[in-house]
Amino acid sequence: MNCRWISSILAFLLTLVLAGCTTVRTQEPHTQSPVPRVQKVIALSSLSADIIAYLDQTKLVGITGSRLFKDDPKFKDIPRVSEGQGLPSLEKIVALKPDLVIGASGFSDVTLKRLEELKIRTLSTKVNSWQSLEDITKTLAEVINVDPQSLLNRYKSFLPEKLNQTNSTLVLVSRQPILTPNKNSWAGDLLTKFGIKNVAAELQGNSPIGGYVTLSAEKVLEANPDSLIVVNAESTLLDSLKKETFWQQLQATKNNRVYVFDYYGLVNPGSLNAIEKACQQLKDNLL
To answer: Pick from 158, 150, 185: which is nearest to 273 by CA?
Structure first.
């Protein structure tokens, strides 16, 4: 794993995790009144774009250039204000004359600050739990004046009807360092919603990424989970992990209970479809 990739995944993860309790913050530099209902929204995160599109697509006038929307017909004609994961273009945003620009805290901070200086209203969001997903959905529904209940009902359909999981599970996101989510992350909270015993749930460490801890090979072997989830943030991660001396000694590998999950949905919520896919895979593989 090279340093460039490590920096990339750290940047991704930093947009997801929170040290505090607040998960939705409105930025109103010019007034203390609530955010007025709006008609023209630009979404700088793929998840907020998808939520707005589900609630009322007519309000969405600009989106991020996320690859998640590449083949999605409902986003085909909506202008992109950024290329891939690059910084959004202020010129493109201003030209679209938005009433509100929604960004992801820790990832869109610089852009949102500049927009505030230009007197453009912004909303900064953080999603690191199921509750924060519901909260931001309600907030966005309120500012565009729609009822969020149908979408909240859709979220409920993603979750299992019964929680009866007792097997232990470990999620591995990278190899150098070995990163795993504890309970204070989107991935960790999602495992909790499914009643899956995350062996790293209560672990704390010196990782610079809130909600994630680093493990030594010895700690992985000590945890010895019944199941392993390997996240494909790096395409060669599974092959790399198989070279570790602990790999063949684990209960999960001996019993062929190693599952590969997409980065979007499990680590980065990404989009509604990505979340639904991750939830279905958890049902199929671990329940």
So the answer is: 158
Whether the CB-CB separation of 180 and 169 falls below 8 Å is answered with no
Q: Which residues contact 246 (CB under 8 A, 6 or more apart)?
A: 217, 218, 220, 221
Cα 123 from Cα 25, distance rounded (Å): 6
Domains of the chain are: 20-158 (3.40.50.1980), 168-286 (3.40.50.1980)
pLDDT digits (tens, 9 = 90+) for 31-65: 334 456 789 999 999 999 999 999 999 999 999 98
d(CA 85, CA 226): 36
The residues, any chain, with a CB within 8 Å of residue 277's CB and separated by 6 or more, are 262, 265
For residue 73, say if its preceding peptide bond is cis, omega within 30 degrees of 0. no
- In the beta sheet, which residues pair with residue 80? 63
One-letter amino acid of 43: A
Name the residue with tokens 């895979």. 281
Question: Euclidean distance between the first and final Cα of the chain, in Å?
Answer: 32
Radius of gyration of the chain (CA): 20
User: Pick the residue with more confidence: 210 or 1?
Assistant: 210
Q: Write phi, then psi, for 281 (nearest 5 degrees).
A: -70, -35
Q: Which amino acid is at 213?
A: V
Q: Quickly tell me which residue has 């199921």 as its tokens.
A: 130
Q: Over 60: is that where the pLDDT of 28 sits? A: no
